[in-house]
Structures are given as structure tokens and as C-alpha cells.
Amino acid sequence: MTSPPPSSTPRARGVAYATYRIFADGSDKPLVSNTSSLDGEIAQTVSKAGAYTLQLSYVGMRDTVVAFKVSPSSPRAALGRLTMREASEMLAGVTVTAQKPLVVKEIDRVGYDVQADPDTKTSNLRDILRKVPMVTVEADGTILVNGSSNFKIYKNGRPNNSMSRNAKDLFAALPASMIKKIEVITEPGAEHDAEGTTAILNIVTVENTAIKGVMGNVNLDYRTTTEVPFLGLWLTSQIDKVTMSAYGGYAHLSGKQGRQRSESEIIFPESGNRRLSSSSSKFDGDFGYFGLEASYELDTLNLFTAEVSGYSNNVRPRSTGSTFTYGAAGDVLGSYNSASTARYNRYFDVDANINYQHSTRRKGETYTLSYMLSTTNQSSDQTSTYSDFYGIESQPYSGVHSKYNLNFIEHTFQGDWNRPIGNHTVNAGLKWIIRRNHSTNDNDYFDWQTVNSDFEHVTNIGAAYAQYGYRVGPVSMRAGLRYEYSRLKASYPDGKGDPFSADLNDLVPSAAVSWQVNDANSLSVNYASSISRPGISYLNPSQTIAPGSMSFGNPDLESARRQSVKLTYMLIKQKFNINFSADYAFVNNGIAGIQYLTDGDIITSTYANIGKTRQVNFNAYVQWSITPKTRLMLNGGVRYEHNSQQGLSLSRWSPRGFAQLSQELPWKLRAELAMFYWSGGLDGVYGYSVSRFSQNAYHSLSLSRAFLKGDRLNVRLSVQNFLGGRTRCYESRVVNGEYLSTTRQYNDHAFNVAINIGWRFGSLNAHVKKTARSIDNDDLVGRKSGGGESQGSQQGGNY
Fold first, then answer.
1. Which of 125, 319, 416, 795 could connect to 174 by a Cys-Cys bridge, CB 3.0–4.6 Å?
2. CA distance linking residue 686 with residue 741, whole number of Å
3. Which tens digit of pLDDT belongs to each residue from 495-550?
């Protein structure tokens, strides 16, 4: 269908990115939904001959509706210029076929339109994340934003602790079909906590439209590395004014998936000794997740929403190993074997929130009241034994039985006010958090001693913020200030330590400016600052002892402050989409890991506020529709990081990238070839991950097809790492400090075949409403046991 303008008529400027929809005669469901080009030009191919209706829409203009017919004898319907009322702009059609841009830039975030990605029907959330600008997913599932694992995960604008703490497992199981878009917020404004992390990853779930009823999706994902399939279910329905969505899933973690081998060499320069260790481990277990969302619209001005979500797992690890110590002359000084088994390693969390939003008669003005409850329980029972000692006379124990229990509960109360006034917008809010951590450690060392600890940490936080926004023509500006007061109190219920407390006051400013140069080009500059408070695993002074090592927390840790500035350029054209960004960030009192040697070459580690970090990030995203059926996507960047503390320093460049080529084939088939690469990064001032392309690059080839009426059944077959060896080696080195080391971990299951089946059923004309404001708590470093962030331990990191 084309409609070229007459050559004798002067060409008018068209409306850029006007929305057009094509309906079959007598149908209210669009067959095609797309946008015009930058010049207001449109063209579209329909699947068969018949009568159709073209509907044009644009903000500030009335819809234009035109009927046309396509027949075998007249396959091209020339519509000429189409005028939209209440404006002088006109649409002039020429032959242009394009795909909807997947990336949208706002003043403080970049959004990825998951539903516009054709891979959504047969992919999990982790697969889609590899395509999102500034996001990297490593081979083991670790997620990085702007090259860092120090970020929080939100769901529908609210913090979701289940996702933040268990992203590796959850994102591999969640079907992408239930996700509407993914937002990367790298410059949070004053409405977000000052105790925020470097970025926020906001997962926005689907809002469905069709007819009233029930709609759902069943997803089955099988991989040869897991042996047992992941099963997920998502449902949504409406009963009168109540709209609900529910989801859940289950997976069994097989022993094959958890197998791993490792070897390490530690050199002690002062004594000249070397310590060589090797181990093999495996685990099995189960995990499940669930969620429920509901909204009740009392009337047009009052909305109630509620949400509850949770995650649970029980993993049973087992490992064996051996360690040898050699003298400077190469003689064996000592050796021993080790074995470890766990009766259980349980984890369970539940997050729940309820929100009330009142809209006034003033357009856009809202008041929101929110309450959130977040709770976590983690426990483990593990036994480690040491045997066959040689040359180690001072070893006082032959094993240890360890039991650990952590209980975390957090109550959050929040109120927000938002009011647009012409070109101005004013936001303000108050927040109060009551947070309690309680952990117990019981370590029974065989034939030696018993070491117990009981530690409680309570934090009360009060916050107030105000933010002002102004938009004039193509320029948008935002400035905000947040004040936070925090009262920290730690105690030892068993009386083995002295209680302590602290009062902290923080002012955190933020600012942003965005310029829409024209319909295609935009620039933005952002300044942001944040603080990070230490979690219980960083504060707990309980000692963990093993042959050759000891670690403990530091109850005197304080909050760390981070500041950053970022420049972003975005180009959106009908066939081409580009996003480039560069940012600089620094920390002067980061929570850093400390490693040193005590008597007998015992490696001892703890934490302190001594880290200094300087970071520069460059990110690039390119989406190119080469032909109507061929698309190329590139997503990557490079990071420079310099860390320093106590006279030591280390710096490194770390590139990363993802590339995907998609091709539509006959018979409704779709093929994709993809590759991603990551190079690791620094481990504080002590070491780094070794980057080798042959070991750190992964590739995949997939073929997908839709079946049944309305493409309700989608099947995808993929093969990963079919070229090269099946074993990958990941190497890390310690190059600073009182000892040097090299550690290698081997993955024998790089090759993988996977099949994904997704079935959509039912239809619905409803969406679970979301309040305009909600709670976000994104401050804790190491809330999860073991010093874990959202992805795991940031050993020696400066946040």
C-alpha cells in the first residue's frame, strides 16, 4: 500500500511518529499497529486482499479514518496525502516499512519495550535483559548495570526484594511474555531513597486489552544442563471493579547443573611458601516463586492497589578438596583433605505492599499513601571435615558443624504528593523505615571449642524530599533535594559485646536537563548522588574460621557516599535507533574489603570505610532494521575503574558486548544468531578477573515458530556454544597485598540445547492499575547472608 504525493504539489512537512492502525472490515482488533517515519511517511503490507480501514492518531489532533481496498488486480492502494484535523501538518505516504523502536529515552531513564520485541513469546526475562542498554548478563546469570552489580530491582515502580536477591534464578524462570517494558534508571531523582545504589532496574508487567474474562500464559523451559524443566504460570482476570494478576513457578536444580571444579595457587612472598588447592563441588535443590497483584478502582478519583510476592529455595551443596603447602625449596610442608555437606540451606522471603492513590480535580495532581512489609528468613546446617593431615602440628580441630539463622523484617510508611502546574511539576514526600536484623551463628569445632554469636542490628530512617520540574519547548529540567536522618543501633543479646549506636544526617541533591533537539535527536545531562548503608553481613563481628583463613564483619562501618554525572545522546529514526552515554562516578569512603596475613600465613579478611573509587563508563546501543525482515542489534560498552586504599591501587578497562542478528523466514519461522562477551572487572584493590575472548565469549543459534490461531502457541529451539570446546575456564588473580594468587574455575557444561514452549490462553479487557507513587528502599549493602548484593558478594568493592 503506497500513496506518493503528486509531483506538482509542494511537499508539506509531515507529522513524525504518528500512530497508525489498520483494521479488517468489520473488526475492532487492529491487524497492524505502527508509527510513521520522521518525515510523516507511511507504508504497510497487508497479508491478503480485502476491505480495510486506516486510522491515524497523534497527540493534540483528531483521529483520521480512511477506508481502502486491496485486490489481486489492484494490489497497491494509493491514499495520497491524509490531513489530520486541528493542525496544518500533513501525512504524505511513500513506500517505507519499519519496525517500532525498542528503546525510549526519558530525562532520568532508558526504557526497553519488551512487547515490541518478537523474541518475547519464547524467551525468559534473562534472555531479554541482554538486549537492554547498559545491562550486561554474564554467563552464570550475574546481572550488571553500567558494569556494576550494585543496583536494585523494582517491579512496577516498587522495590522487589525477591527479585533483587534472587535475580539469577528468577529471571531465568520468568517468561518475558508477562513483561511490558524494562526501565534502566541510572540517575534516580529525589523521590528515590538517598541510600540508593548506583542504578535501578524497573520491571514493568503487562497490561492487557481485549474482552473481559481470564487471560494467562504457561511457559515451559527445558535445557540439557538442568535436565528438569522450569515451569511457570501467569494469570490475570477482572471481577467487577477488582482486577487481579497472579504468577508462580517451580524448578528443580539438578546435580549436573551444579557441578564445578576449581584450583588455586597462593604465593606468600615473605616466607616463600606456596599453597595449592583443588576442589570439586555439586549441589541439588528446589526453588519456587509466586506473586499476586490486585487493584480496586472505587471511582475515577480513588484507587487502591496491593501486591505480595515471594521466593523460596533449599539448596544442598556438597564438595571435596585437597590442599598442599610447599616451601621455598619445593618440599612439602603440609597437606590435608576436606569435605563439606549441608543438611539444608534454606531461604524464604515475602514482600507485600498496599497503596492508596487519590486524584484531585486538578489534572495530574495525586496524593499517595503506601505501606510495605518485607521479611526474610535464611538458615543453614552444614558440616565440614578435615582429614589426612601431614606436617600440620598446630591444627586443633578436625571439622566444624555450623548452624546459621538470619531474620530480617522491615516496615515502611510513605506519603507522596505530585502536582503539575502548566509547564511546572512539583513533587514532595515523607518516609519512615523501621528495619530489624537478627542473626545467630553456632560453630562447634570438633575436639576444640564452640564459638557462638548473637547479633541484632536496628535502623530507623526518616526522610523528606522535594523535587521541581520545568519544561519549556524542547527543554526539560529537574532538580531535587532529599534529607535523611538515620538512627543505627546494634546489640548483643548474649552479652558478648558492648552495644553501640549512631545518628546520621544526610542531604542528597540531584539535577537533570534534557534537550529534544528535534523529533529524532535528544541530549540529556544528569547529576546524582547516593549513600549506601552496610547490611548485617558486613557488620556482624562473628568469626568464620577454616584451615588457612578467617573472616569477620565490622560493626563500626558507616554509610558510603557516591556521586556521578552522566551525558546521554539518543537518535530515533524509523529504521535506526542509537543510544550513546558516558558517565563519571566517584566514591571516597567506600565499604571496602581488607585482606591481610596473620601468623602461619592465615588469610584474614574484614571490611572498612577506606575505599576510593573512580569510574568512567561508555555505553552504546544500536538497533538497525536492515530490511523489513532483518534486524541487527548491538549493545555494549567499556568501563574504566580505578580503586585505591591504604597505599594500594589497581585500575583496569573492562569491555562488554552483545550482538544479535534476527531474520524472518518463510513458514512463519524466525532465526537468530547471537553472541555476548564480558571481561569481568576489579576485586577492590587486590585483584581482577582475567579476560580471554575464547573463555568469556558465548554464542547461540535459535529457531522459533508460532502455531494455532492468533499465534497462541510459540516454540523456540536454541543451541548455545556449538563451536569450540564444552569446557570454559574463568580465571581471577590477586596481584596486590601480602599474598598473590591465581584461581581457576571450570564449567564443563558450556554446550547447551534448550527448548521453550509458551501457550497463551483466554482474553481480557483489563489491566492491574498502578499507583503513580510507591515505596522504594534501595540502600542496603549485604542484606543477604554472606555479604551478597543483588547478585552476590562485592568482595573488596568500594560501595
1. 125
2. 10
3. 877 787 878 788 888 898 989 888 788 899 989 888 887 877 788 787 888 888 88
Beta bridge partners of 568: 524, 581
What is the amino acid identity at position 280?
Answer: S
Q: What is the rounded distance in angstroms from the CA atom of residue 562 to the CA atom of residue 195?
A: 10
Coil vs helix vs strand at 117: coil
Distance CA 205, CA 176 (A): 9
Rounding to the nearest 10 degrees, give the CA dihedral for residues 536, 541, 542, 545.
120
The position carrying cell 498496599 is 354
Q: pLDDT tens digits for 394-440?
A: 778 899 999 999 999 999 999 999 999 988 999 999 999 999 999 99
Average pLDDT, the chain: 81
| 518: exposed, middle or buried (Cβ count in 10 Å: 0-12, 13-18, 19+) | exposed
Reply yes or no on whether the pLDDT at 212 is more than 70: no
Q: Are the beta carbons of 645 and 611 closer than 8 angstroms?
A: yes
- Neighbour order of strands in the sheet with 19-24: 30-35, 19-24, 50-58, 61-70
- Give, in order, the Cα–Cα distances in Å from 343 to each of 321, 346, 399, 615: 19, 10, 15, 42
Residues 6+ apart with CB under 8 A from 548: 275, 323, 601, 602, 603
What are the cell numbers at 154? Answer: 523494582
Q: Strand, coil or helix: what is 106?
A: coil
Quote the DSSP letter at residue 80.
-
Contact yes or no for 100/577 (Cβ under 8 A) = no
User: The pTM is what?
Assistant: 0.72
Residue 274 and residue 44: Cα distance in Å, rounded? Answer: 70
The one-character DSSP state at 120 is G
Write out pLDDT tens, residues 691-741.
788 888 888 999 988 888 777 888 989 998 888 777 888 899 999 998 999
How many angstroms separate the CA atoms of 778 and 152, rounded? 6
